[in-house]
Design a protein that fits this description.
Elements lengths: L1 E8 L3 E9 L3 H15 L3 E7 L5 E8 L3
Antiparallel strand pairs: 1-2, 1-3, 3-4
Length: 65
Amino acid sequence: MEYRVDLYAAGGVHDDTVGFVANNEAEAVVTARGLVVAKGLDRARVWRRLGDGRLQHIEWVGAER
């Protein structure tokens, strides 16, 4: 499935958006957490792209989890 991650620095400042393919939600969340840590950011919002192109929010993740 296709996923999108919006990455945020401290204070909720949007830093970047990354799209990728993962096998499931758990893998997408682990990937998002890895991006947060690798870029030294605060948190990420994980989205799944639905078949009609809309996005469905999955969860917020941070480096601390």
